[in-house]
Amino acid sequence: MKVGYLGPEASFTHNATRTAFPNEELVSYHSIPACIKGVEFGEVDLGVVPIENTIEGSVNTTVDYLFHQTTIPVGAEIVLPIYQQFMVSKKNQARWLETTKIMSHPQALAQSQEFIRTYFPLAELEATPSTAYAANFVASHPNQKIAAIAPKMSAETYDLEIVGKDIQDVEINQTRFWVLGAEKIELPIQSEHQKLTIALTMPNNMPGALHKALSAFSWRDIDLSKIESRPLKTTLGEYFFLIDINVQKPQLLLDNALEEIRLMGGTVKIFGNYAIHPINGV
């Protein structure tokens, strides 16, 4: 089986994918849409993409593509603890405080702002396609006073020296990844609870539309763990709502709640009903 992931190698997504699929062929993609299209076009059987981070929130590229452009189901979720490392070439290890440019993925830069402000308030920050890309660039330019923020695996892969350990602003920093391509996907990682994710759109000009929709869950005591609005990309001021539901009630009760919303004139798109698989100690 082939499993696609947002690359390159040694990125956080690669880390999660490698742990969840240790014996499968892994295929790197340069972007989230490219990875999802790889599943759509049959280049790979499954795809792994980030969906949310503790600090930075939802990955809008993933949410919007799955809502607007595909019907590929979510079959599992992986939760990976995120530890950001500050790394330089071995040649610059002794003078790492002289770094003039810091490179990383925008989310990694945002997750490490306190460290950057403390040690490098004047350094140039350069966003890169991935954390692993930044590490690779630093390794390829050892004579430049540059550094990367990336996972530990990147330092090992590209032979860099970690000079700042676990520099993320929040100690408990996690990223959720969705496994796409099948309605139910078995992983060799112990699962916790089940989750149902839907996208909800209500009719225009309906007073209290969101309140009425949420009441379908409320009076049935259905627990919602997340609700977020995203632009419909039609007219300014029109949105769909991304909702995560903790599956603790009978399926019939959930189905009835969704049917009640449809009877109000709402539209419901089901992303997936899937198990949560936390990864520990990676």
UniProtKB/TrEMBL annotation:
InterPro entries: ACT-like_dom_sf, ACT_dom, Chor_mutase/pphenate_deHydtase, Preph_deHydtase, Preph_deHydtase_CS. One of its GO terms (cellular component) is cytoplasm. One of its GO terms (molecular function) is prephenate dehydratase activity. GO terms for biological process: L-phenylalanine biosynthetic process. It comes from the Bacteria. NCBIfam families: PRK11898.1. Residues 198-275 form the ACT domain. Residues 2-182 form the Prephenate dehydratase domain. The keyword Nucleus does not apply. It catalyses: prephenate + H(+) = 3-phenylpyruvate + CO2 + H2O. Pathway: Amino-acid biosynthesis; L-phenylalanine biosynthesis; phenylpyruvate from prephenate: step 1/1. The keyword Lyase applies. It is an enzyme of class 4 (lyase). Pfam families: PDT. Keywords: Amino-acid biosynthesis, Aromatic amino acid biosynthesis, Lyase, Phenylalanine biosynthesis. This is Prephenate dehydratase. Its EC number is 4.2.1.51. The record marks T175 as: Essential for prephenate dehydratase activity.
